[in-house]
Amino acid sequence: MSRTVIIGANHAGIAAANTLLDNYPDQEVVLVDRNTNLSYLGCGTALWVGRQIEDYHGLFYTKKEDFEAKGAKIYMETSVNDIDYAGKKVHCHPLTGGDDFTLEYDHLLLTTGSTPISPNVPGRDLDGIHFLKLFQDGQDVDKEMSKPEVQTVAVIGAGYIGVEVAEAAKRRGKKVLVFDAAPTCLANYYDPEFSSMMEENLKEHDLELHFGKLVSEYKGDANGRVNQVVTKEGETYDVDLVINAIGFRPNNDLGKDHLDLFANGAYKVDRHQVTSDPAVYAAGDCATIYSNALDGDTYIALASNAVRSGIVAGHNIGGTALEAIGVQGSNGISIFGLNLVSTGLSVESAAKFGVDVAYTDFEDLQKPAFMKVNDKVKIRIVYEKSSRRVVGAQLASKADVSMAIHMFSLAIQEHVTIDKLSLLDIFFLPHFNQPYNYITMAALGAK
Fold first, then answer.
1. DSSP annotation string for 14-58
2. Domains in the chain and their CATH numbers?
3. Could you count the other beta carbons within 10 Å of the beta carbon of residue 25?
4. Which of these, 8, 110, 329, 376, has the minimum number of CB atoms within 10 Å of its CB?
5. Which residues are catalytic?
6. From CA 409, how far away is CA 386, in angstroms rounded?
7. Which family does it belong to (predicted)?
8. Whether the model pTM is above 0.90
């Protein structure tokens, strides 16, 4: 038997453990996690807090007993004090009491995820300032939203989590202030022509937006609870609750002094999820991932990427050489009925990475004008000027056009050119689309 110790029992760790347990009977699998629960779908927190779903129970998709039934050992509420990489030993500490113990391994998989970024500003430790990452964080925010004295909620950060929890707070009847140092929301995923649509959507639902504003201080009352947000410009806003959603950093505490790191501190891994130590693998939010749009390593913290990288790690540990095919960072958001989806690079992100791109836009009704149920669709396709390969796409509509982004994801993965896309065989039926499909029309509009 070969023993694999997995540190971190959420999406990447779970995917790797199931891969090993379901396919490799010669593998002994041990999971270690600090938390009391596993498999929480954090992307559903805002749905639960905003009362768009009845409760949180459906946000867990597996449990400790499921792994034990497959023969795995799993230690929850257990901290890893340190790792002896030379001796291949993991030193563990039960958080609920009991003696420390050591686990020896043949292979080690780090799936320690990411941790919320906490800005180092005065007042950061005041009561009433929360993050959204773990299930317990969602519970805390939900309890705060239930307090009648909590009337004004400040959301710091207008990325996906920030915008989603802002919607949730509004649905709970709160006054909502959204702050972001960037000039618009969702800046990491969309160009201004698309993010501005979400900005207008938020304004239409009476959210107070403060973009281009950096929060520099929190102030509190006599009881040590936050009651004011102060910006770098000296503007002060009265609040009853602060939710910090400015982003995450890779949790590299256990390996940062031993393993090679990416620019942001993530563990550098190859296409087989192997780190600079051949006995150590890493997957999920703590590790790099290969971008097909960039043709190189990058960092994209998404649960979907965590699952895929966990599966790849599991097979390679089990003895099947499997190379990751890379990702595009496909993503989407739906707020107050407006749907945005994207994949690959935006025009702005391409410039940051030094990729010289052009783009083509198109906007039209999704279906022929004679169809009673209809919505506008806006699309942008981004392509590299030199090779003309597609490197990104963005769509916006009140209709569900999300499935189209999967086709663009595959196009980026397979290095399809914008010219091939313009002649793609796309069917027409009035129930679904126009005879001149918006994808075709956008591709034909490329220079």
1. HHHHHHHHHH-TTEEEEEE-SSS---B-GGGHHHHHTTSSS-SGG
2. 2-42+60-115+250-318 (3.50.50.60), 118-246 (3.50.50.60), 337-444 (3.30.390.30)
3. 10
4. 376
5. 11, 43
6. 20
7. Belongs to the class-III pyridine nucleotide-disulfide oxidoreductase family.
8. yes
